[in-house]
Amino acid sequence: MGFYDYSVPNTKGEEVSMKDFEGKVVMVVNTATGCGFTPQYEDIENIYEEFHDKGFEVVDVPCNQFAGQTPGTDEEIHEFCTLKYNTQFPQMKKSDVNGENQLPLFEYLKSQKGFEGFGKGAKALAMSAMLKTIDKDYKNNPNIKWNFTKFIIDRKGEVVARFEPTASMNEVKKCVESLI
C-alpha cells in the first residue's frame, strides 16, 4: 500500500482520503496545543499560506500521547489553533500515532521514514535526555517520539522526509519549497 491508500478521520468523524491530495506536496504532522513546540503552528501556517496555491497541503493530526499535551476536545483544539495561530489548514480528529490504536497512516509513514535522531543543539540534547528516561531504546524504533514530528510527501505520493520537532522550521520550509 502507498500513501494514497490511507485515510484519517476529520473532526466530524468522516474519513479524509489521502487520495484527495494526489499530485500535491503534503505535510502530515502530529500536533499538540500545550507543548513547548506548539509555536510551530505559526511556522506551519506561514508555509501553508506561502505554498498552498502552488499545491501544498497540511494534514494536522492532534495527538495526546505525549505527556497529555493535547487534553481538549476536537472543537477546543480547533478553536485554540484558529484564535492563537490563525490556522487555515485542515485539522483532523485527535488520534494516536503510536501503539495499538495508532492511525494506520502513521504506521505506514514510520515504515517509510524511521527515526534518524534529533540533530544537534540544546533542544536535541534535551529531547534525547528526556526520552532516555521514558524509553532507553528509543533510538532503535521508528515510533513518533514527540509532538510536531513532520512527514513530507512529494507529488508522487512518496514519503521523502521526516523532521523531528527539534528540526529547524527553515529546513522544513526548504524541503517543501524544493518539491513545489
Q: In percent, how much strand structure appears in the residues?
A: 15-25%
Q: Which architecture of one domain would the CATH scheme give at its second level?
A: 3-Layer(aba) Sandwich
Reported by name, the CATH topology of one domain is: Glutaredoxin
Helix content: 25-40%
Total helix count? 5
Regions with little confidence, pLDDT below 50 for 5+ residues: none
Secondary structure category: alpha+beta
Q: What string gives the helices and strands in order?
A: EEEHEHHHEEH
Oligomer: single chain
Measured on Cα atoms, how large is the radius of gyration? Answer: 15 Å
CATH class term of one domain: Alpha Beta
- For CATH, the homologous superfamily of one domain is named as Glutaredoxin
Count of DSSP E strands? 6
- Describe the global form: globular
How are the strands ordered across the major sheet? Answer: 4-3-5-6
Q: Care to describe what's here?
A:
Keywords: Oxidoreductase, Peroxidase. One of its GO terms (molecular function) is peroxidase activity. This protein is an alpha+beta fold and 180 residues long. The protein has a domain of 106 residues: Glutaredoxin, CATH 3.40.30.10. The chain has 5 helices and 6 strands, in the order βββαβαααββα. The strands form 2 sheets. The protein has a 4-stranded mixed sheet with strand order 4-3-5-6, covered by helices on one side. Strands 1-2 form a two-stranded antiparallel ribbon. A hairpin with a 5-residue loop joins strand 5 and strand 6. Helix 1 runs parallel beside helix 5. The chain is globular and about 40 Å long.
